[in-house]
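User: Sequence recovery, please. Input:
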């Protein structure tokens, strides 16, 4: 008979592979939700109080959104879409919890993440170098054909890198293969040509090194990092970089405009170059404009099913384009727009509670490892909430890692 822990690990791997490669958000959500119901019905042990307390902010956000449906005049298709967006992280964390609560094998869990990272990296690099034409394809073509990002590979990289420090042994015992796999993962991470992955890679690395905890050493490290970033941007703004170029120059252009893409809101939408270079800022600005028309929306939110009027039909979401969208890239503004200021406060509280793991005093290196990874995930979501909707992005494999590590943390 197959041990239960291997069944759980297999289900975990299948869920994440579907999350990464199955293009239908609806199908993924349905599969995950049905599996959660099945596990709830077949599991005898109750969900721990600690996990429930961790999820309280997300549950309250969801409940507030549901209460807003009572007098809603929005279309049910859009209401259901928002219900799934705000339910997904709760569903994912509980699903991972139920899969791992009876699996008392921390190393097996880490090996599963490493396996996923290596497998997806192989698929990615195979696509880039074998199925594609790396020498001729533009960055947009490479990303469009073979993946925009994959944060599992970043966590797999650091789990392998720090395994000896916290576990006392390397997850890959052979020293030669240990370095080969690290380089292999690093190559795949770089070749996504993703600014979000690039920043996340360094933020997670700083966190895993222990710099998330605020100390004098942290401030020195932040100072050095800001100096390096400042020098990088001084260089980028001192040279002419062609917006329409290919290869590394195109990637450098995207890095150059990254800050203003998020924060610049005064945009001429008739100027397509300016609009697409600052799309995230434009989306957020439209949300604020709509809330300003009815200021009480800052308090109560616009509710599940509400849409953001872009004021023109943008070429997104299919060949016909979309004038009204239900989700935007800025996760903080997204929560504020849908749920109101209380929802935004609750979301930040949830992330802060995860971050505070950095101040947990542990003696067992394994549990320090768990804390570092949970804090790294918190730092990741603090950042990604500015760029890709944070924990509420429809396709997110990291939230399943969070559920698994919270389970181990509570054992």
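Assistant: Recovered sequence (411 residues):
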């Amino acid at each position: 008979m197959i041990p239960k822990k291997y069944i759980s690990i297999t289900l975990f791997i299948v869920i994440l592979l579907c999350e990464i490669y199955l293009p239908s958000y609806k199908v993924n959500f349905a599969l995950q939700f049905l599996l959660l119901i099945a596990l709830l019905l077949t599991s005898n042990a109750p969900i721990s109080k600690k996990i429930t307390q961790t999820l309280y902010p997300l549950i309250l956000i969801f409940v507030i959104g549901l209460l807003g449906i009572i007098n809603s005049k929005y279309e049910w298709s859009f209401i259901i879409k928002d219900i799934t967006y705000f339910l997904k992280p709760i569903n994912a964390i509980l699903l991972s919890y139920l899969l791992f609560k009876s699996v008392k094998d921390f190393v097996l869990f880490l090996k599963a993440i490493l396996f996923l990272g290596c497998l997806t990296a192989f698929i990615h690099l195979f696509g880039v170098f074998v199925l594609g034409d790396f020498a001729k394809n533009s960055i947009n073509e490479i990303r469009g054909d073979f993946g925009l990002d994959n944060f599992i590979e970043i966590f797999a990289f650091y789990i392998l890198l720090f395994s000896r420090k916290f576990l006392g042994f390397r997850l890959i015992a052979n020293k030669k293969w240990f370095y080969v796999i690290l380089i292999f993962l690093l190559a795949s991470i770089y070749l996504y040509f993703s600014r979000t992955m690039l920043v996340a890679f360094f933020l997670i690395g700083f966190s895993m090194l222990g710099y998330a905890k605020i100390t004098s050493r942290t401030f020195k490290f932040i100072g050095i990092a800001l100096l390096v970033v400042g020098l990088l941007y001084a260089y980028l703004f001192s040279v002419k970089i062609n917006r329409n170029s290919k290869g590394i120059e195109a990637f450098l252009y995207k890095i150059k405009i990254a800050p203003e893409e998020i924060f610049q809101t005064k945009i001429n939408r008739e100027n397509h170059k300016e609009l697409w270079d600052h799309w995230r800022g434009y989306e957020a600005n439209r949300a604020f404009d709509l809330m300003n028309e009815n200021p009480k929306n800052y308090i109560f939110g616009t509710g599940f099913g509400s849409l953001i009027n872009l004021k023109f039909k943008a070429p997104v979401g299919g060949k016909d384009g979309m004038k009204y969208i239900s989700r935007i890239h800025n996760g903080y503004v997204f929560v504020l727009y849908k749920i109101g200021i209380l929802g935004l406060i609750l979301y930040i509280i949830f992330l802060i509670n995860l971050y505070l793991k950095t101040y947990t005093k542990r003696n067992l290196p394994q549990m320090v490892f768990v804390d570092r990874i949970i804090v790294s995930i918190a730092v990741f979501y603090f950042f990604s909430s500015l760029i890709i909707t944070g924990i509420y992005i429809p396709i997110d494999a990291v939230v399943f890692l969070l559920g698994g590590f919270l389970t181990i943390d509570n054992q």
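Strands lie at 308-314, 322-325.
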